[in-house]
Amino acid sequence: MSDITSSSFVRRDLLTERPAPVKTTGFIGLVRTRLFNSPTNILLTIIGALLLWFTIVPSVRFLMVDAVWSGKDRTACLAENTGFVVGACWPYIQAKLPQLIYGFYPEAERWRVNLTLLLAVVLLLPLLIPRLPAKGLNAGLFFLAFPVVAFFLLHGGGIKGFGLSWTAGLLELFDDSIIGAGQALLNLSKNSAIGPLLWIVGQLIVLLGTAISWLIFPLTWLRDQIQGTGQSVWLDFAITAAIVSLVGFVLGGGVRTGGRALASCIGTFLAIAVVIKLMDLDHGGLSIVTTNLWGGLLVTLVVSVTGIVTSLPIGIALALGRRSTIPLIRIFSIAFIEFWRGVPLITVLFFATYMLPLFLPGNFTVDGLVRALIGIALFTGAYQAENVRGGLAAIPRGQGEAAAALGLSWWKTTSLIVLPQALRHVIPNLVNSFISLFKDTSLVSIVALFDLLGSLRASFSDPKWSTPSTAFTGFAFAGIIYFIFCFGMSRYSLFVEHRLNAHRRN
């Protein structure tokens, strides 16, 4: 014990002070460890600072320091009147703001556009906030009810029938197209080398159309009888509601478990009836505003939102079809995707606007904006299909095998297990396509649709605001609008990606 005590050591002198550790946090740490920690980074930092100096500083001077903020005409933005070199001419934006938002939409009816945008915001915000309840009801209102209400608000007009009349009209149009094709073959058989063959095929097609017309005759007869009454809309509505509610009740399980489906159908039709009555759709509705009067930010939002909402389901269906084991579905999906990815968007818009009407029956027309929307939706859906297919390929086979071992069907396995994980993997790619689509809406101006940029260029022709800085101000304003929407989508996608990838956080 004494040996241990004698061998212990106690320091009697203090150690010399060590130098303070290098600071690696804060602004000084950032400068030391990231900006000037090597000759290459020093050079890149200097180049970046020079770029910022020669871009950000002139932009701020143009948009704010040297800008003119008030005035009634071009004289307020001329250098000889202000005494300095004029930057942005913001009075021009203030004067042209209604045109940039609404286009040529009638001023007395612009409350309809404002109400539509308000409804969109009210229905969209609860979907974007994860903690708010009733997501299913909210999604149904936004994706199903809102497009119909928005159409009648923006376009106007009323309805002359309901589900029964619409179904009969579509079947009758289909039957007329079949009979028309048969008649065309009969006409070709008179001056063709294979006339007998064309005559036989034409007669068969005409007979097929005649048979279809006899099959749908009870439906068309009932439609004609309903339209002969004074309350065609409400009578048709009642018959449609009764048929749909009965089908929902039977498919929902009948007396034992079909009460919930029946209540949902009745509630849905009651809501539709309230909308029809409030908007007076059974008596002509609101005054019609044709789409050639739409323009500005309205057209940009309509085209982009419609393309985004419709392209994702199309892409999911095509991606699943491309991985299908049924050859017909797989070949069709592959051909569709490769065809639409092989043509530029400008060609699609030209075809949808100018060539598609040539392939339609003479008594059937489609609005120009609707044709552009269909073309954009199909074009973007083909690109989304490849994004979704990449996510599906990243899911291990064990996921599907485990679901099959539990007794889940293919539909439940795909919708509940495989597809949610696949979409989570490709969130950046999907949002990247959405942002590209929002910016590509400016291409619709080549087919006589005035979006934000089209309305902006149209406003340049006003001599009242013709100044050297008018064009730069207008494009700067449009760039700010595009940046706000695109940056908002990118930040929200990061939020969703971070929230859904909680299991991967360190």
Description:
By secondary structure, this protein is mainly alpha-helical. Helix content is 71%, strand content 0%. The protein is built from 22 helices and no strands.
Q: What is this structure, in a nutshell?
A:
The protein has helices at 2-7, 26-35, 39-65, 79-82, 90-102, 110-128, 135-154, 163-188, 195-215, 217-227, 232-251, 254-257, 259-278, 297-322, 327-341, 345-355, 368-393, 397-405, 410-425, 427-440, 452-459, 470-500. It has 506 residues and is mainly α.
Keywords, separated by commas or semicolons:
mainly alpha; globular; 506 residues
Helix content: over 70%
The value of Rg in angstroms is 32 Å
Number of helices: 22
Major sheet summary line? none
Structural class: mainly alpha
Identify the quaternary structure here: single chain
Provide the β-strand percentage band. under 5%
Order of helices and strands: HHHHHHHHHHHHHHHHHHHHHH
| Shape label | globular
Reconstruct the topology from this structure.
Layout: H1 2-7, H2 26-35, H3 39-65, H4 79-82, H5 90-102, H6 110-128, H7 135-154, H8 163-188, H9 195-215, H10 217-227, H11 232-251, H12 254-257, H13 259-278, H14 297-322, H15 327-341, H16 345-355, H17 368-393, H18 397-405, H19 410-425, H20 427-440, H21 452-459, H22 470-500
